[in-house]
Specification:
This protein has 16 helices and no strands. It is mainly α. Helix 3 packs parallel to helix 9 and helix 10 runs antiparallel to helix 12. The protein is globular, with a radius of gyration of 19 Å. The termini are far apart.
Length: 294
């Protein structure tokens, strides 16, 4: 793994320290994959801009920014320790840390999950259900006996866990879940996102004897699968509001651009957080505009 100063201008802690190791284990490049949906959920669940920064809204953002990522990626690394030995993303010059083991890491992963229960008294029943869904899917994706990540199609479907933070945040303010079309569209978006991220792991997974949607379909058909999920998401979101379709249409266009330009997926994979941030910002700004000027 390259020195952190090469990647975050020396601002991040060294991976050689325990705190630095936890920092990198939590995948800081992907923090907004969980915290971003909270921002969008708050933006659309709020009835006024004053609700954007309630103690509950801020606490949910803080939880899903770091502790939830320690839980999600920590449990993944614990049960993938053997597989990750040959994963280039976890190599000495890769962008992610190798799992070190140790009781302290396991305890912190468990505590990160348990911290979610602090929100239960402040959430409506549907919000508690969404929070439970995140924890259950987050654990069963990586942990046996279900270990969804090793079962083609279910590995993709189970990644609906990434929209759960948004559902929790929306329910916390609105008292209910978003429209069913939004939930379905968001779920399809996560399915495409997960499977796209699995493409760089095709060879390491095959070498380890692990089957995923990506290993079964292969590179080109996996790209087509991702494009199909994202196109379907754009259609469903467009039924809610045409502007949503425009935002979600960015993703199949992203796939088309990769294919036309013959961009290496191992490279495009690291562009994806930027794409998600742009899309999330567009959705959030639209919600702010609605409350401010509508």
């Amino acid at each position: 793994m390259t020195d952190v100063s090469d990647r975050l201008s020396g601002l991040a802690p060294s991976e050689q320290t325990f705190v630095g190791y936890l920092f990198w284990l939590s995948r800081p490049r992907f923090w907004l994959y969980l915290a971003g949906p909270v921002v969008v959920g708050v933006a659309y669940g709020a009835s006024s801009t004053a609700e954007y920064f309630t103690p509950l809204s801020v606490a949910l953002f803080a939880y899903f920014l770091v502790p939830a990522n320690i839980f999600l990626y920590g449990i993944n690394d614990i049960f993938d320790a053997d597989v990750d030995e040959d994963n280039p993303k976890k190599s000495d010059d890769g962008k992610e840390v190798q799992y070190r083991g140790g009781r302290a890491v396991t305890v912190l992963v468990v505590l990160s999950a348990l911290a979610a229960f602090a929100f239960v008294p402040a959430l409506p029943a549907v919000g508690v259900a969404a929070l439970a869904g995140f924890l259950v899917l987050g654990a069963t994706y990586s942990a046996p006996p279900l270990r969804f990540k090793t079962t083609p199609v279910l590995d993709s479907i189970s990644n609906g866990l990434y929209i759960m933070p948004g559902l929790v945040a929306y329910a916390a303010l609105a008292g209910t879940l978003p429209p069913a079309l939004v939930v379905a569209g968001g779920w399809l978006w996560t399915m495409g996102m997960h499977t796209f991220s699995a493409i760089p792991d095709i060879e390491p997974d095959q070498a380890a004897g692990i089957q995923t949607t990506a290993t079964v379909l292969g590179h080109d058909r996996t790209l087509a699968y991702c494009a199909g999920c994202w196109l379907a998401a754009a259609v469903l979101m467009g039924l809610v509001h045409p502007g949503f379709a425009v935002v979600f249409a960015i993703y199949p266009l992203f796939i088309a651009g990769i294919a036309v330009a013959s961009v290496d997926i191992d490279r495009a994979y690291w562009w994806f957080p930027v794409l998600n941030t742009i899309a999330g910002a567009a959705l959030t700004m639209a919600a702010i505009w609605r409350l401010t000027y509508a």
